[in-house]
Fold:
Amino acid sequence: MRPRAVPDTSFLIEHFRKGSVQNIFLNLNNFYHITFSSVVLMELLSGAFDSKEQKLIEQIKNNFTVITVTEKQWYTSGKVMLKLRKDKKIDPLRIKSLLADILIAVSVRDIGAILITKNEKDFKLIREVFDFKYMAV
Structure:
């Protein structure tokens, strides 16, 4: 059985721009069971002004496993935010900007998946206070 992988928004946006989303899905599918985060889909949809992109996001939603954030994961995310503020002295505005990434990290760990991202900076910071797997590409 293939391990699960969750592509992050930053990773997907690059492939949307290059027009290589389908190819990357096929390549990843050889090694991983691709799963999507509802948070990632929300982020993608909020920036999809083009109807072609909106349709692609709809196809992803309808054809792949999508995980949603649970009440427990929201609470855990609050703990991670507090730990970042205390341990890493991150200011409240910066913490709020990390909320989506923290929700993704928490839900990825809970399903035993690896996150695939281009956003190493933020996920590296989060991993300093919350252990989860990610691969920066």
Remarks:
- Residues 4-136 form a domain with the Rossmann fold fold (CATH 3.40.50.1010).
